[in-house]
Design brief:
5 helices
Length: 196
Amino acid sequence: MPTSSRSFSTSLILCSSSFLLGVLFVNWTYDHKTLWTPNPTAEVFALAKQHYTLLATEPVIIQHVFHTVVGLGLLGFVIKLYKPSESNKLFDGGSLVLFMAGLIVYLTNVRRGFYSVLDGDWGDVDEHTGINVIAASQVIIAFTLLGVLGLQVGQYYAEVQDDREQAEFEREQRELRERRQQEGDLRTTPEGKKDK
């Protein structure tokens, strides 16, 4: 039986995505100043670098919690796509693509950026550009996670609407059968006799 949008696996996806959005929100104070403040000062970049250094040197248990939350989100997708319905294929397939895109951006840009913060090797760009790459990558990840949440809410709405239409159709069919049965009963009664 296909997994519905009201299942435990959907809760895993929603909780994981919401938690990850919360983690990204913590970084917004620094990302906003480096990305959208006109002419950011060196002090702004120094604060952002200090923040990212703190994140890069966090205890391993915190990294494991973060990766476990990501894994729970992926587990939710695997469960939902095990025996997919049509809505699972569309909504959950799209959500999985967005979730994986965010994960790839994290691994290629954010995680590598944290290593660059620690060792000071920014490759072909300067430090300020490297910090902005980390910040912009986190904004991209936030949009992918918002897309996941939007598709999951859309799937829920579509299923509720489909259930309403199905219930309405069944009600109309039941009324039609009852009406035909009453008409059939009237035809089978002998003429001149009154129905009791």
